[in-house]
Amino acid sequence: MKYVSIAIIDDDLMARSMVKQFLKGTEYHVIAEFQAPKDAYEWLRIHDVSLVLCDMKLPQMNGVELISMIRTIHPDLPVVAISSFEDFEFTRGCIRNNVCDYLLKSNLTQAKLLSVLDDIRLHHNIREEETVNQQPDLIPRNEPFTADRLEHLIRTDRLALFPDCTIAILFSPDYPVKTGINWKEYRHDNAMTFIDIINDVLGSGIPHVIHPESDERILLILSFPRDMRDKEVILKMVNRFTEKLRRKTFRLLDLPLSLIVGEQGTLEDTMKQCDELLHTEEGKFRWQQNATVFLSRYVPSTPKTPFRANGFFDVLSFALHWWYASLAHDVVEGMFRQLGRSACSRTEFTVIAGRILSLLEVKDADAYIAQVQRMEDLQKLIDQICDEKIMKEADNARKFYPAPVFTLMEAVKRDYRQNLSLQEYAVTLECSYTYISREFKDKTGFRFVEFVNLLKVNRSKLWLLDGSVPLKQIYQKAGFESYSYFFKVFKDVERLTPTRYITKNCSLS
Fold this sequence. Notes:
Layout: E1 2-9, H1 13-23, E2 28-34, H2 37-46, E3 51-55, H3 63-73, E4 79-83, H4 88-96, E5 101-104, H5 110-124, E6 129-130, H6 147-155, E7 166-173, H7 183-202, E8 208-212, E9 218-223, H8 231-253, E10 257-261, H9 267-280, E11 292-294, H10 309-321, H11 325-342, H12 346-359, H13 365-371, H14 375-400, H15 403-415, H16 422-429, H17 433-444, H18 448-466, H19 471-478, H20 483-494, H21 498-504
Parallel strand pairs: 1-2, 1-3, 3-4, 4-5, 10-11
Antiparallel strand pairs: 1-6, 7-9, 7-10, 8-9
């Protein structure tokens, strides 16, 4: 494709990334970027470019001094000055060096930048031209990333790698679940900036190539010369690099960073290992944030207990219907504890997440699920949505039920473990036993004792599904007088015995 080629000279990584984001999808293409002015000058001596964007505050020399040097080799090259502040000396120096425009970063917008570049193109009669990718250390996601491809680039001097000593690292930024924004665009912009951070941290010290599999998974191949091939030396270098990268990513993008480190080998071995890295990343949704996984030490989780999905959905549905906040949160906590024990696959996790969000009547559930990278993110999201839904249901119930009935239902939820007496509640509510009994049955469809037992049974289901409480102790935790009475009530409510209930509800389907 044809583009107007641009070089950026700025030691501020975020400023360079901002400019590249502004130019994304336009006819302007950044073919080179530099932090150090001397590197930029040496590159411009042997390369042609249509436009230069140059910062004024640079290490070693200021922008005016660099532009004066550029004028000796490219007298007519259009240059745009960019700066974080207004400075009379810089402005005067730019005028003397025939700079096309002086832009302040604080009020720079895409529209402003494109307007300035369009005017320069028109004034200097700059035409689009075929632009060769000047960033050989980046293989775009839509291009093949294979050993044969990389070896061809090495043979044709388009990629500087040492193919007999390489190591692969898979980076996965720990993106939060975002609402109210275009989350795909948010992740893409951050992924592109993250690639800039990788190059910034590595500099020219270690030959490398980057391949973004997606905005969530970015592969990096590092290579090492003969004098740096001791395994301990390479491991220390990788650790120093990843820690520095992690700190800088968190500081600039506010993103924790999970990563998987492969094993040292030839380029062919490393490229085969990339598939294993990608497969290992499938287990990320069970990791803690900011995790570092070494492929040689990674042991995949194996299922320990079946996930009793149906039972959890049953109890959660009950909690939402009766706006029972504490039960709903206990269900969610128990559900995700079971998910962790079961070590379910990502596919199973996606199915479960979809069912939960469907139960919560969430619109665009697929968009939420697509964002989720780990179980704890989904748990926080579901807790938040549960709170919102239960508050809404509680407001509706407060309008529908007479005040004494609503107050009684809230009290029962709070006191379910106690020996509840409707007569005592009637005194507290300052109404007759006959009135509250009749109104409660009329509005809820249950007699008082039936509703109390219903709450206790649903509470007991959680301990049955969790499996951590012996069956003989559950009746006490649920507030039943005896095991035999618990057994009878549970069977009356569920049409199943407690043990049969567990068997029925221990499958995913």
